[in-house]
Design brief:
This protein is mostly beta strands. The protein has no helices and eleven strands.
Length: about 110
């Protein structure tokens, strides 16, 4: 049974930083892309960043230059380094991994507030 376990969320002041991680366990198979999404209250879930097996990545315009996605294939883990956080970054963040199937994490809350 495949599980994705996220960690690193929390409360941070504007301008602060957080580093999210998402580790996969179980027989996930060969991993293609890995990504982070977020969903703010009363808004649709949106793609934040995605990284492919080649190492190339793309980002939502709203986070470019502030967030960095990375992956460790040996650990089956994807990271999201978030810097210069803004109140509008407040959301539940979900990881998504494309392996044998399409897998989602349970979500981790990120709150940016003074």
């Amino acid at each position: 049974q495949v599980q994705l376990v996220e960690s690193g969320g929390g409360l941070v002041q504007p301008g602060g930083s957080l580093n999210l991680s998402c580790a996969a366990s179980g027989s996930i198979g060969s991993i293609n892309a890995m990504a982070w999404y977020r969903q703010a209250p009363e808004k649709q879930r949106e793609l934040v960043a995605r990284i492919f097996s080649s190492g190339s990545a793309n980002y939502a315009d709203s986070v470019k230059g502030r967030f960095t996605i990375s992956r460790d294939n040996a650990k089956k883990t994807v990271y999201l380094q978030m810097n210069s956080l803004k109140p509008e970054d407040t959301a539940v963040y979900y990881c998504r991994i494309w392996g044998l199937q399409d897998y989602w994490g349970q979500g981790t809350q990120v709150t940016v507030s003074s």
